């Protein structure tokens, strides 16, 4: 997020549909000072409809099909919230997303598409896949293509989309060598929206691909392996696709806006007829002044007008009107690399049309690839010695921490024991206070935000701080919040604080701790941390108890540092970033409980896996072998490491580790020093105890893995690749 200027107004985009994806791109090129931009979408990426039939046919990979919303949000300086809006409280001006605090807005825009679900048809919800939303359909289709054996597919609805999908499916299955039986069913005439010429060409293609077309056929119900229709035998179908229904999402009808059959009625300015602070575009909107069929081309053409009008609504400018074209060029894929073009009743088909369509679609997608991260600085012409080495972007999360060397040399570590109730530990995760029978552990940690979603960032920062308590086998007791917010108006402060404090309370309450205070100030960047305490009646598990022969168990995959660095540089895949977020947001209370028999334990954070293992070795006076190939990695981490991406803390971690091991020679080896944020627990325990702990965690859905063992000294680390 661009925090060079104070934030005063909130613009919230609901849905990462085509129009909003383009608005984000335009915002990246021309941001509006003072506006905080938020986009809410259930998935980190959204498919581009123009390429969907080609994806079904196998001409495009999923990487080519998807618009990576995390990447564009980074370029636009927008905060992305991975969730599904369920309501808009217009009186409070809040968007409601389940399981999180409401999101305040000044101006809101809705671009959530439609669904082609047919809940009124018996068995559809249980056994069929709607073609819309496109992302669910694309994912399920990919899974179906991985299967083997004969494939029977029924497509309900022989409009252009249904026919395209049927032809693409037939082409793909034949190409995969599977005996394919594709049936396209419509209750009236197929392809009725196409002109005569185009229709007959499309019907010919269906026939050539052996797609069985059943017109004027009523579907009675969908079953697990067949579609039951009136007046003929059931149609065998291992997969039934619904392309017939076009339905607006039901929750839109509860907002109190003027609607047309469930779609939001909008003015030419794309503002709701009822509420000028709400805009609607794409399939979910109804253009009262010029109704049009549901097609992505309109969402795309609305984007520049929407972009202009959203800025006008935020800053007081004049609105522009959107006038849709009366006819548009239809480019229909015909299964193979052949397409049909139709405009004003004239139709041409063939390979050249496919290449033309392919060029248009790739150009559309390429515009997102050219984006750069917002705020990327050019190096000045003149600078002081040593400047260049530190001038790259600083990572966030644990990647932004000060290296261990500087810390060790600072006055912080030269104070020594001054009180009897402070127990001196050898560099443990938390400090230990012994007061009569009570053992209290304390820790503090804060993170420079790597996501502008305050809810996600708060959750991860809380889990990160609690990791120090859990890793010592203690139970969380209290927490204090320490917060730096970027400069913003009082209204935005209140909204942001509400999101943060609700989340912090939820996480701490679930962990058994109470928030007892905190401190907030304004500064250059969003930074959040927690000071936490925990209690234990047992002897805390420290770094210093590992025994020769113990095995090492790790409870989360590693790679967050490299993935967060890659995300900031817009190199990471949004899906992998979202998975890394989910991993960081998972608390390790159950892991700690399962590992209560550990002789030594730590949470893996800024020093990286090898660095934290080195801490155990130093404190326990032992050596360790780490089987690098056994260490679980987050998806995409290895690929990023192979391309040379590193966290900005990596060089510090490496120089510290070199006192105990050789420099890693490979991309996988380098990940062992990748700083982790809210990482898993690393424990040393006997082989028997490890077996029990791993099995217990498995029952709870946690994939803990044995990654090495403790060996005799000298204190050293051996990375085995
Ligand atoms: C098989 C098929 C092929 C098609 N081919 C073409 C074509 O070639 N050309 C063409 O012009 N049109 C085509 N269409 C139509 C086209 O898909 C749609 O018109 C277009 O996708 C509409 O774009 P949109 O911006 O309205 O929303 P969408 O592209 O549908 O995107 C909506 C986004 O909002 C998200 N969302 C949904 N609910 C919520 C919520 N509650 N909160 C937050 N986010 C939410 C979704 O996950 C999705 O990311 C095709 C349709 C199908 C089914």
Number of DSSP-assigned strands = 36
**Alpha-beta content class:** alpha/beta
Termini distance?
A: 40 Å
List the uncertain runs.
none
Tell me which ligands are bound. Answer: flavin-adenine dinucleotide
Q: How large is the count of helical segments? A: 21
Main β-sheet: number of strands, strand sense, barrel status?
A: 6 strands, mixed
Strand content: 15-25%
Mean pLDDT: 91
Q: In what order do the strands lie side by side in the largest sheet?
A: 25-26-27-30-28-29
Gross morphology is globular
Helix content: 25-40%
Radius of gyration based on Cα positions: 29 Å
Please provide a written account of the structure.
There is one protein chain. The model has no long low-confidence stretch (mean pLDDT 91). Strand 22 and strand 23 (339-343) form a beta hairpin. Helices cover 32% and strands 24% of the residues. It is α/β, with parallel strands linked by helices and 721 residues long. It has a six-stranded mixed β-sheet, with helices on one face. Strands 32-34-31-35-33-36 form a six-stranded mixed β-sheet, sandwiched between helices. It is built from 21 helices and 36 strands.
